[in-house]
Write a structure and sequence with these properties.
Helices cover about 45% and strands about 0% of the residues. It is mainly α.
């Protein structure tokens, strides 16, 4: 019983929060998502058009989406998407960011929760 309770507490502590994820995606100083992506296929002149709309990513399984945001280079070595949870192989990094991932694990979980909420299937 204690093991089950401990597992439930750990799982809930790491669950993503849709509202925090929405705020992170919209924050151009932190996640940078909207510099390259639009939220929907309809687009927005204040959002990027270099990469697929974020709404299309909602169809991925949560773990697949998480892994792609963490380090897309694992799926496409030529990607221009920055690794948000890895610092391996990065160059020209500002001194304040050297050795630090751009997002925390919790922030990554929050973004995944938000992107999954965009699924319109």
């Amino acid at each position: 019983m204690r093991a089950l309770l401990a597992f439930a507490l750990i799982a809930s502590a790491q669950a993503g929060d849709v509202a925090r994820g929405r705020a992170l995606v919209a924050d151009r100083t932190q996640s940078l998502c909207l510099l390259c992506h639009s939220l929907t296929a309809a687009g927005d002149p204040n959002q990027g058009n270099l990469a697929p709309p974020l709404q299309s990513a909602a169809r991925l399984a949560p773990q697949d989406l998480r892994e792609r945001i963490a380090d897309m280079r694992r799926f496409n070595a030529a990607t221009v998407m920055p690794p948000f949870r890895s610092t391996d192989g990065l160059r020209d990094v500002a001194p304040a960011w050297q050795g630090r991932a751009a997002l925390t694990e919790q922030q990554l979980d929050d973004i995944v929760a938000y992107l999954r909420s965009l699924d319109s299937r």
